[in-house]
Design goal:
single chain, mainly beta, 5-stranded antiparallel beta sheet, 1 helix
């Protein structure tokens, strides 16, 4: 019997942060949060989530921020939108 299992990423989810300001260029409404989740699968059927990574990118200055670089304003806006 052959058993196919492993991990694979899901499709990226994008969320526009309209009320957050970029700390680098000070532009408001230019931030986009991108979340990528990794799942464990058997026969290409997702069973459970293994990890999740969120990054934020400014469309004006193209600066990227990792989760440990998020400001309080970014975290508040993310939590408000995800509810």
């Amino acid at each position: 019997m052959i058993l196919f299992f492993g991990t694979r990423p899901s499709k990226p989810e994008s969320i526009k942060l309209f009320n957050a300001t970029c700390p680098y260029c000070q532009q408001r409404g230019t931030l986009t949060a991108i979340t990528l989740k990794n799942y464990f699968h058997i026969f290409w059927i997702k069973l459970f989530k293994i990890s999740s990574n969120t990054t934020i990118e400014c469309s004006h200055c193209k600066r990227g921020y990792y989760e440990n670089e998020f400001t309080d304003e970014m975290n508040r806006e993310l939590s408000r939108i995800k509810k």
